[in-house]
Amino acid sequence: MKAFIISDSHGWEQELKKVIDRHRKDVDILIHCGDSELHKEHNALRGVNTVKGNCDFGDDFPNDITEEVKGVKIYVTHGHLYNVKMTHVPLSYRAEEKGANIACFGHSHVAGAFVENGVVYINPGSIRLPRNRVEKTYCICDYNDTIAIVTFYDIDGNVIEDMVYRFELK
Asked: Where does the record place the Calcineurin-like phosphoesterase domain (predicted)?
């Protein structure tokens, strides 16, 4: 199962569409972790599973979603409701409650991935306003029963070599 994960595009339209279209045919699911600042019907978000961030106004998007793709359960939220800038504990409780294999979130604009209690946690960073790195980032997670590989890319589609995470599962 391959998941494309992006977050915190903060109003960028053409840039967001270009990045998503680059990978659209190569993945099983497209995910935006919130703060798109676009409407649900926007062309850039066509076919993208999108949640509401703290900078998204209106009722276009849900606060969280859970999707199952090829037997892999993916939980998606923006993270502001779980205080992810301070701790991952509330998010981990929610992900475990949902039975997630993967938990995707944004909000902090800090790209990274880690495993806790068998759940792969992924923050794709931001394609507009990254923090802790200069690269504007998004990622793809390639997940099967025994391994998860999370590969981060810059906005131009180049692999960020020191941000390829390989997690042994089970």
From this structure: 1-145
